[in-house]
Amino acid sequence: LKGRNLWVLVLGRFPTHHKIGIPEFKYVANMHGDETVGREILLHLIDFLVTSYGRDPVITRLLNNTRIHIMPTMNPDGFEATKVPDCYYTRGRYNKNGEDLNRNFPDAFQSNNASIQPETRAVMNWIKNETFVLSANLHGGALVASYTFDNGNSVTGSLEGYSKSPDDDVFIHLAKTYSFNHASMYKGTGCDNRQTFPEGITNGYSWYQLEGGMQDYNYVWGQCFEITLELSCCKYPPADQLEEFWRDNKVALIEYIKQVHLGVKGQVTDKNGDPIPNAIVEAKGRPHVCPYRTNEQGEYFLLLLPGTYVINATVPGFKSLLKTVEIPDTTGNFSALKQDFSFPEVSIRSRAVSCPKTPLYRELEQASAAVKPTLHLLALTTVMLAIFK
Fold it and tell me: Which domains does the chain have, with CATH numbers?
């Protein structure tokens, strides 16, 4: 960056700070500087939210119960460098150093050797300092909602051409929420005859494999579900089309924000009622490769579709607490189901725990590959013993 700041506008009843029980949501656009539609519609969205507050009961409830962060441009230098509007590729895709910011994050599957750019570092710090629950990053060049994982290996099923996260059902729901509330994305007609996307959604890896992407980083290291929204076939369309893009996306942008209230949330406290940070809270049967932990206020947020789940809260060194919850559809109430956990024997603050930035899924793959030969050896030994008995 040429000394430029990346600007974020925060909207909500308490915009200056996090409030317990109120989830954090973000939209980021224009990380590819020549993909401009997202940048413009986020400015429209800001205007719409601010002017509707106090007038529109739905928007008022949404802002009273959600803290919404909007970054219209993550790559101001790339945007400035795009002098001539073009529907296809231009140099403005990259930042000032010629780096693609959506290939620049630590990757959960392979070592990403790209040197971390100032814009990327700023966004990583932002993710670390806020309890983001849900997010979307806005792109151009196609018309589709793409979801995690963008990269993959045999552990996530990439051999079948699909890289599946433990929360695949939630991601499909999130992508469909956007595509079906968009004017035409759900129709699945691609930008040319070669490419179609049934229901207007795609698994990122199924579309094309990508290393160092922002959405996978959010999910693995930020505990934040993010999808990538491709909003226009033309990356930099004429200005007179912008109003139509806003109309096409307006309902989808709002409905997507509401999904931050899916699932279950709560606080983990000790015997004195004080919050326990860094306690692990996960739904049974969907462990994250980097376990999801409580924030400084002992809070957790888990996005889950309606259904019955067992929630497991663990403070290292103590017996886990298990609670069965029946999750209704909570998005209309603007609040996830509340389920707190209290550890009566604990009166300690757990130490800060950070997840290593190594390719965690590669280690999983190596571990599962290492187990297989051992099993074969065991079988072989058993057969040999049987023969020579």
Answer: 9-261 (3.40.630.10), 265-342 (2.60.40.1120)
